[in-house]
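RECORD TYPE: inverse folding
INPUT: structure tokens
STRUCTURE:
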């Protein structure tokens, strides 16, 4: 299912000098992405939608930041713990997305972490209510729907102090008006916490690498091959939490979707108290939307996150809410 992106209409401490230079370079790279000049020709476009309310509120800057089950769709290395875990622990997430044009999305998943390793499983479902189908004169011909599904399983490990590597195997299926196609894909990524710059983590990933299936035509024959949305991304996140509870974190990504120009993502998260986070982001290179916002509340072992994305051209707005639990 096509989604709005680019030209696609449907489918608390002073920073070290070296760190400042690195973050400025990332920001300039994002700014240089500009607006995409070429429309993507890939299928399975629901895989481009931000996974998880927190990352969506931060403009989609998830290459170095995603750390729950949704990391399977950003950077699989994020399912391994940033700090070694004594014994084992888990985390589960349910994410509901009310998107534009009657589109809906559900993501449910969980991870288990032990020492420096992590295992994760997540299901990403994207679907729509019945959409009217009309001819060139506006006459109603009927209705059709779209259903997309992806199931991802991944593993990540801490290979050396500060360095996490991970990979995920993904099965995706897309059904458009009764014509479906399925494909296997893989994703891989890495995260590195710089020892000389506490609070700074760099990340990079390659997502949706796999074959190009074909949709059936009206005659039952195989149609043209539809490539998966191969995406390469790199990013950085930096932040601190002070002893009085105040904390902040910034993130910046650059990404390249096959068939599109380079884009950028920027996000900032401020926590005036440990239980409350306020978020904002900006998507560079998007025609349909740019500003994002949201908030998160932590109560005991539970988290509630919300993201809001207003679209241009009277398309409406996107609302996402996620419920999580730490086990």
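DESIGNED SEQUENCE:
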């Amino acid at each position: 299912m096509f989604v709005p992106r680019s030209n696609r209409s449907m489918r608390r401490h002073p920073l070290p000098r070296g760190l400042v230079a690195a973050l400025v370079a990332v920001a300039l790279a994002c700014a240089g992405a500009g607006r995409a000049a070429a429309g993507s020709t890939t299928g399975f476009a629901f895989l481009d939608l931000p996974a998880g309310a927190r990352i969506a509120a931060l403009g989609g800057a998830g290459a170095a930041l995603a750390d729950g089950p949704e990391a399977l769709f950003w950077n699989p290395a994020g399912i391994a713990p940033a700090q070694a875990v004594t014994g084992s622990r888990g985390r589960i997430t349910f994410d509901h997305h009310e998107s534009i044009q009657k589109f809906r999305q559900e993501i449910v998943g969980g991870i288990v972490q032990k020492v420096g390793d992590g295992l994760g499983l997540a299901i990403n479902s994207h679907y729509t209510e019945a959409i009217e189908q009309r001819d060139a004169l506006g006459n109603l011909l009927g209705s059709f729907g779209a259903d997309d599904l992806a199931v991802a399983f991944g593993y990540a490990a801490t290979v050396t102090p500060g360095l996490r590597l991970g990979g995920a195997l993904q099965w995706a299926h897309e059904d458009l008006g009764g014509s479906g196609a399925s494909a296997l894909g893989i994703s891989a990524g890495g995260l590195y916490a710089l020892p000389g710059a506490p609070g700074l983590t760099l990340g990079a990933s390659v997502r949706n690498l796999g074959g190009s299936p074909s949709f059936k035509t009206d005659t039952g024959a195989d149609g043209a091959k539809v490539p998966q949305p191969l995406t390469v991304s790199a990013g950085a996140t930096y932040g601190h939490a002070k002893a009085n509870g105040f904390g902040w974190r910034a993130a910046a990504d650059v990404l390249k979707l096959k068939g599109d120009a380079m884009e950028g993502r920027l996000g900032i998260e401020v926590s005036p108290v440990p239980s409350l986070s306020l978020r904002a982001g900006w998507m560079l290179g998007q025609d349909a939307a740019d500003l994002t916002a949201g908030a998160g509340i932590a109560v005991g072992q539970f988290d509630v996150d919300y993201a809001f994305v207003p679209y241009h051209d009277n398309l409406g707005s996107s609302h996402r809410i996620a419920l999580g639990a730490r086990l």
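NOTES: The radius of gyration is 20 Å.
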